Amino acid sequence: MSISRLLEHWKSDPTVSENIVAWRTTPARQPRHAPIPAGVHPRLASALRQMGLVELYSHQAEAWERLQRGENVIVSTGTASGKTLCYNLAVIDNLLRNQEARALYLFPTKALSQDQASTLRLLLGSLNEDSSGQAGMSWGIYDGDTPTNTRKQIRNQASILLSNPDMLHTGILPHHTNWADFFSNLSFVILDEVHIYRGVFGSHVANVLRRLKRIAQHYGARPRFILTSATIGNAVDLAQRLVEEPFNLISEDGSARGAQHFLFYNPPIVNSELGLRSSVIQESIRLGSDLLAYDVQAIIFGRSRRTVELILAFLQQSMAGEPASQTSHEAESLVRGYRSGYLPGQRRSIERGLKTGAVRAVIATNALELGIDIGRMNAAVLAGYPGSIAATLQQAGRAGRNDEESVAVLIASSDPLDQYLARHPDYFFGRSPEKALLNPDNLLILLNHLRCAAFELPFHLKEGFGRVEAQDAQEILDVLTQGNQLHFSKDHYYWMADQYPAQAVSLRSASPQTVQLLLDQAGRQATIGTVDYLSAHWMVHPGAIYLHEATPYQVETLDLEEGIAHLCQSSYDYYTEAQQQTQITLAEKLYERLLQCEGAETPIGYGEIIVHSQVTGYKKMRWEPRELIETCPLDMPATELQTSACWITLGEELVERLRQQNAWKNDPNEYGSQWKALRLQARARDRYRCRICGMPESGREHDVHHISPFRNFSDPQLANRLDNLLTLCPACHRRAENAVRVRSGMGGMAYLIGHLAPLYLMCDARDIGVLSDPQSTLAEGQPVILIYDQVPAGIGLSNQVYEIYPELLSAARETILACACQDGCPSCVGPGGENGKGGKAETLAILDGIMGIKLP
Amino acid sequence: MPSLADKLKSLGVQVGPAKLASDKPAPPPSLEALLEGEVVETPVGECLVVEKRYPLEQPHGRSRLGLPAASERILSWAGLSELGDFSPEALAFIDTETTGLSGGTGTFAFLIGAGRFENGTYVLKQFFMRDPQEEPAQLFALEQFLAPCSGLVTFNGKAFDLPILTTRYRSHGWQSPFMAYFHVDLLHLSRRLWSERLPSRTLGALEQHILGFVRDEEDIPGWMIPQIYFDYLRFGEAGPLKRVFYHNAMDVLSMVSLFAHTARLLSDPLHEGNENGLDLLSIARLFEAMGDASAAASLYLQALEHDLPKTYWLAAVRNLALLRKRRRELTMAVELWMKSAEYNDLEAFIELAKYYEHHEKDYAQALHWAQSAMEIIEEQAAPAPKLAGYRAQLEHRLQRLERKANLHSP
């Protein structure tokens, strides 16, 4: 372990140290211990001692005390601080005192159940060893992977059942009569990693818990709840909304912790003329190679599956050249990928390799963000800001899972948000993690779970549902009765339909359909992975190169109906990039209302929309040097997300007023009559090659880019001077535009509303999409700002937008006025590009216009 | 303020016509008359029970309802040979009509048909809940009626009817009374017996091909049944229920008849004038699986007397030969392998090669059969994985045989 030597190296090498914009060191923390409480069952205490655990951390002891007093607790301490023992202690102690007692452990993923099962195996193994003839305590995993022939045994015997909310929802609660004994004796329910249960998923899980408590009550049990969470802004609030019972927070972390270095790294500028920085992938590979060279075991988080595979491929290549590992085969086993789409067996083997240390680096998506125990990780590299403070803390927390020194590096991408944070690291370090929000009373979610609950047990007329009052539940049950799903008789609602309602309700918004990737090799077929239905369109279209564990496969055929893609293995020296077109059309306008503020009237529309996406072709890109080989057209079916949306229309009058205030930047640029000739001149000067990557034109004319944005000039002639023009290929053009983006007021407002609306809709930011369109078909070509549900068929979020709009708008306005920034930052209308403008004044002008606030 | 229903409608939820539950007409007072049943009082409420009695001579298809005479073999197949001398009166035949096929606690068995033998007649009772509130009474009455019995006969009950009944009892906090009953599932037995001959093993197919029974036009397809009950509950439409009761009764009667038929078939496979070679082959396999090798062997021989299609003929010869081999009746086994070798049966070649190598020590003969086997494998265009396994073994055997043959040649 040479982490300190590596840090010295980074400090002394100017090509690294100059890019480090912030270096924070959290000093090592001494552990605070407490003796194993006297009340712990002697067999459990001795089993712990046998495992070398002679004392507890202070927070574990605190959890014990509170649980002994009969309180529900939520433990929110750092990664690897021994949260698991907080609940295992109470649960196993209880099981030792009451042979009949049962406990339910719920984990958000199947992988976590597997991981926690191995912890439990050790503890119970040690306990059962000295059971001196008494029956051993048993546990079992009950999820979609549990073989049918062992299910009955697990149902009947497991004292501790490990499962997930989805299985509880579709496989356990609707069959509770098979679990009569289990529910009758249910004394503890454990919910691990509850910060995952936010937004739509969280709202579903809260309702599954209402159903769980209802069934437990039917069998006369009233279980206690123990929750654990990563650091979030509102742990107790989240716990109480999820479980609807009072909770006590345990957050004083008593575990030991080594010093942690947090480095904020902004990639070096490679083209000073355009302000272009080296890519986040290149820098991840560079820092990753350093970590490998200094033998520091590391995890690298990519923001997408593609990023993961690209980093993986390059890192393995660079490793294969090193003398330490001569063969590429060795490099492949030292550096592994980890993301959704890998098969469970592969994942288990990678997890094992990480624990034993055989795997030195893993490149992962946030699939590994959850608390899967992968042992010693001494470094974490975040290739791009993960989107929230909470997620950043989670990923960085992967480093330093013990009391050794560790390092986390956040590499800024070229996105405006990343660049803003890189320029204002204090803003990043000063913010508290986001709150996790959910709304269990969302009408559609509630309705679906009332259907499931009525299926499980008839509803009594006077029966409420969690926090939902009986009369409100009854109103919905009456609608279901009208809809011929329930039958009301005397004083009960009975499920009376040939349906299994839980099957139709997915707790997670992702489409449940998947496409299997079949590898045809020497007449045999093997499944190498899966891809979800929607991603299949752009990831495994015919001709695509699909990277799996950095091995390229070519897709031969894709059958979306059967859900099968046939792949073949070969050596390809290129990768592919799908080209996708997205379009929004109106399916049905359900209402239009006028938002009236101080005499100003703004139309707000609501209706069903369809978000069409279609893969129209793909590009073959050579690996080294990076260049386009060819573009191939594709005939792929369009995918449609049918959902509901709410849009606010800026009327012509308002736009005209904004133009007069010089606050309207959405008209197309008028480059002037000379533009055509100037374009040709610039391209000829640059020999029809991209000035950044050198790619020659093929089939399509390259773009001509204004180095200093056109909008910055009042005189078009000055803007169009040849030395302000540059020939760029489309890809480089996009990157260049990102760096100098001039944000319009529309863009600023969409950004601001996208960030504020979840607060008022009580949902997660991922649950809604926000778009601005200066010429929208939703409003006869007028500019609109659109908020839509990111879930097929919608969950009714955008329908609440009309009601919250007045509040939302004034909150937006206050946010802008209160923000001390010059011209846009992530806290208000969003940052401009690194050299661009934020559009703060323009956004404020739009808000003033809608809210009827006259200029002073 | 839009109503909740309007709100849900605007969110895309299918909302039924604005018709209140109280709008539905009360069930006609003539339900008992219509279904020819009576309302039964129990300590946990009322339900409707329809009772029918059938003489055992009642024709049902080609034969009569009958009393299963010798069911030892069925019971021994079901792993219940210890029951030995049980009386047919201990058997209850049971079939449910449910509100759906998905199972789970929201699936009700609104009609349960159960029958048992009583003093030389067959008594069928159908327990019906006129309303879900009557379920406790329905279950209670069923339990009472079946109290004298100790075993259940069903058709697909293992996977369907019995789990649903258990769920129904448990959802009222009771233990299922049938946990201690032994159980024979006729579907599983029928699969063993008629998979080769019949394209499908539904009760309907068995009625048609095995029992020769034709239902009258009152019958109704099973998939329509849940909706008929829902319509009855919602709109008081009772008329179509009659057809559901008929369907349920016929299901139970066909089970009785099928049980009797199968019992006879298994206790004396040849007596029935069973001219079907495929059935004999299936019974032989069943007996072999049950461990009765001598009965199996004689049935294989009987089956071979019939004009079996080639694949079945080969299967019978192979099975019989292996049975002989296991019983160390090698001469007879060799005779059979020779027969199937005429049809270029690969496995027969291999067995013959083994026999001549290990028992006769006739390496030239053994080599001949092993080579023939190899030729067959090589003729295959696309080798199956199974063949690859054979091939490896054969290559090994050929090498060894050549060595041995050389050693022993003069």
Q: Strands across the major sheet of chain A, in which order?
A: 1-11-18-17-14-16-15
Radius of gyration of chain A (CA) equals 29 Å
* End-to-end Cα distance of chain A: 65 Å
CATH superfamily (homologous) name of the largest domain in chain A: P-loop containing nucleotide triphosphate hydrolases
Give the overall silhouette of chain A: globular
Summarize the helix and strand pattern of chain B as letters: HHEEEEHEEEHEHEHHHHHHHHHHH
Q: What is the β-strand count of chain B? A: 9
Shape annotation of chain B:
elongated
How would you characterize the largest beta sheet of chain B?
7 strands, mixed
CATH topology of the largest domain in chain B: the name is Nucleotidyltransferase, domain 5
Q: Mean pLDDT of chain B, nearest integer?
A: 85
Mean pLDDT of chain A: 85
Beta fraction of the residues of chain B? 5-15%
In percent, how much strand structure appears in the residues of chain A?
Answer: 15-25%
Could you describe the largest sheet of chain A, including whether it forms a barrel?
7 strands, mixed
Please, what is the CATH homologous superfamily of the largest domain in chain B?
Ribonuclease H-like superfamily/Ribonuclease H
Secondary structure category of chain B: alpha+beta
If classified by CATH, what would the architecture of the largest domain in chain B be? 2-Layer Sandwich
Q: Supply the CATH class of the largest domain in chain B.
A: Alpha Beta
Given the structure, what is the number of helices of chain A? 28
CATH topology of the largest domain in chain A: Rossmann fold
Write structural notes for this entry.
- The complex is a heterodimer of chains A (856) and B (410).
- Chain A is α/β, with parallel strands linked by helices and 856 residues long.
- Helices cover 36% and strands 24% of the residues of chain A.
- Chain A folds into six domains: 3-25 and 259-430, 3-Layer(aba) Sandwich (Rossmann fold), CATH 3.40.50.300; 34-250, P-loop containing nucleotide triphosphate hydrolases (Rossmann fold, 3-Layer(aba) Sandwich); 443-504; 510-572, no CATH class; 574-665 and 742-856, no CATH class; 675-739, no CATH class.
- In chain A, the strands form eight sheets. A seven-stranded mixed β-sheet of chain A has the order 1-11-18-17-14-16-15, sandwiched between helices. Chain A has a seven-stranded parallel β-sheet with strand order 6-7-5-8-9-4-10, sandwiched between helices.
- Chain A is globular and about 90 Å long.
- The mean pLDDT of chain A is 85.
- In chain B, α10 runs antiparallel to α11 and α12 (310-326) runs antiparallel to α13 (330-341).
- With 410 residues, chain B is an alpha+beta fold.
- Chain B has 16 helices and nine strands.
- In chain B, strands 1-2-7-6-5-8-9 form a seven-stranded mixed β-sheet, sandwiched between helices. Chain B has a two-stranded antiparallel ribbon with strand order 3-4.
